[in-house]
Amino acid sequence: MNTEKVIFAFFIILAATLNFGFFLGEIHDAQHHNVYELFAALVISLIATVMKFGDRTHLGAVLLATSLVADFQLIVAACLWGYGTNISDTGLDGELVASVVSMSGGALLANMISVVLLVVETITVRR
Amino acid sequence: MNYVAYVILRRLRAPLITLILTYSISMLGYVLIPGVDPSGEPYRMTFFEALYFVSYMGSTIGFGELPHEFTASQRFWTLLCIYATVVAWIYSIGAVITILREPTFILQIQRARFRRRVAHLREPFYLVCGYGLTGSAVVADLSRRGVQSVVVEIQQGRIDALELDNLPFDIPCLCADAGEPDVLQDAGVSQPNCVGVLCLTDDDHVNLYISLASKLLAPKRMVLSRVATREYAGNMKSFGTDHVIDPFETFAEYLTNAVFAPYRQLAYNWLISPKHRSLQSMVVPDAGRWVICGFGRLGKAIRRRFEQQGLETVIIEPDPAGQAVKEDYRVVQGLGTEAPTLIEADIKNAVGIVAGTADDANNLSIVLTARELNPHLMLVARQNQHSNAPVFNAANIHMIMDPNMIIAQRIMVLIKTPLLIRFLEEIETHDEAWCEKLVRRFDLMVRDHPLDSWSYRVNQDSTPALYEGVRYGRGVTVGHLTCHPQDRSQQLPAMALMLQREGKIHLLPEPDFELKIDDQLLFCGRSRVQNTMSWTVINSNVLEYVISGQDEAKGYLWRHLFGSRRSNG
């Protein structure tokens, strides 16, 4: 058993589940989407990315790439949320919430790919 | 280079995760802890405000309590966060600096830079492994001739010396074990512009490794290696090392030549080393008995050659049993530095002495004591340390053997021009009288100036003027080339040594020898004459002047307008 791999799997799956939790719900409705969940998903995704730094295998590089994609999407989502709550005159309206949730949906896809890759890697290790 | 990036990223994992965690926990605290706005209403920070506050707090910029004055619980949290973020930053920055200062990391960076520089070399270069006395002499000589080299050396001190040597070229150097194949690969052994590999480390085994690896990685590459023992020499030759140089064997050959064919030896010496011995300094030793002090590698090599030529020798050796001296040798036990030992070896009736021990002070002492006892001796001394050169020169010794210089000279001969090697081989087949005539011609030509040799080939690329002249039947001869390009009544201090035509050798061609296309010519002369001669070889106007004595019309128009008039008149 490789402890590093287990911890990494924990973060990858946690990032995916948090992301999924945030994504669930009516796309326009701010009530269905918890900002704390978005925050947690972003932080966990960043940690998962950093944990893949310096992996010289091809699979490791692909995992890093998908994590970076998820980070990027989540950061854009967080920025949109921040814009809505602090800067926008109309506040966090349905349109903005829809953008935030669709960005997090993209991140969810990337996180899912990460999970699939992780599962593939785990299956190929016959120990 | 990628490897370096991976190492950095891997080391950065822990600091980065620490930063992310510290920041996210701090932010979360501010969002969760309730505050009040100026009107006393309960207020909670948004994530945006929390990020803003933590960012300027963590970097200790400190804009105050924003957006509203804090409550006691918020201040309590701030107190914790200040210390947490500052410590996280100090830890992260410290980690980065540690990576940058780590020797392995610095080595990786240097290696990557070296690899890049070698890969970007466009001109042909020699890979020199080992930058000791021999290596530095060879690299300096190569640079002087405008040839690029790449150096791999295991001692950092010598690499530093290379940087201080102030060579005209920027020479890529790496501190690494050249015996490792990937080091050789980085040093460009399989690059097409690598002309040859010179193994000049002090360790025979390392040299063997380098030769092997370069022969396997790049089978066509010329490999030259120095060796100190015969077993290794045989081993290296067995897998096709192109040149194996044993300094002791080389010097023994040199010395034997000096004793039996002094003029041939002098001609050879003049051609291979720019700082030659003067003709006056030549000593022709009488036939007779030689005393050899020190029966190590040098002593054995000399003894074997003298024996082949039928010369009688006496050996002085402090430990005859240890050196496995044969029964029938005449051996005196001792160092040879004291008069009684030398007298026991019958120095008074000997013709020469070889001080061949591994200790410079002993060698000098042997030579000086021997001269006291017999002023007519021919003195030969081995100089182990390069720094002792002034003392050895002052001692007025007939022949000084500096192993490093011998190897360096030998290598330069091999590298210089293949024609010169051919010529030196030809010298071997001629007798002393012929060689004496040759040396006297050299002496008339250059006197005390350095003698250099160079070669031309009659073809379109390297000698366009010669090529044209020969093609249009202008009757270009060897003599035309040795005329001064500005005043053809003057002779350049240079002479043609050899002309090679379709594999056939013409030694010392006469001035009226006519050239043909694809001839190869070997010249020697004062060292700067080559530049002057290149005028005649490359510029067809100069060649025309040298042939006809007339300055030709230069441009097409001029030739068209006035060229025909001259031919009419």
Task: Describe what you observe in this structure.
The complex is a heterodimer of chains A (127) and B (569). Chain A is mainly alpha-helical and 127 residues long. Chain A has one domain (3-124). Chain A has helices at 3-23, 35-51, 58-87, 94-124. The longest helix of chain A is centred in the last third of the chain and has 31 residues, at 94-124. Chain A is elongated. Helices cover 50% and strands 15% of the residues of chain B. Residues 565-569 of chain B have low confidence and may be disordered. Chain B has four domains: 2-101, Helix Hairpins; 123-245, 3-Layer(aba) Sandwich (Rossmann fold), CATH 3.40.50.720; 278-412, Rossmann fold (3-Layer(aba) Sandwich), CATH 3.40.50.720; 449-568, Alpha-Beta Plaits (2-Layer Sandwich). In chain B, a hairpin with a 5-residue loop joins β1 and β2. The longest helix of chain B has 31 residues, at 2-32. In chain B, α19 crosses α22 and α21 (529-538) crosses α22 (540-548). Chain B is an alpha/beta fold and 569 residues long. Chain B has 23 helices and 18 strands. The N and C termini of chain B lie far apart (73 Å). Chain B is flat and about 120 Å long.
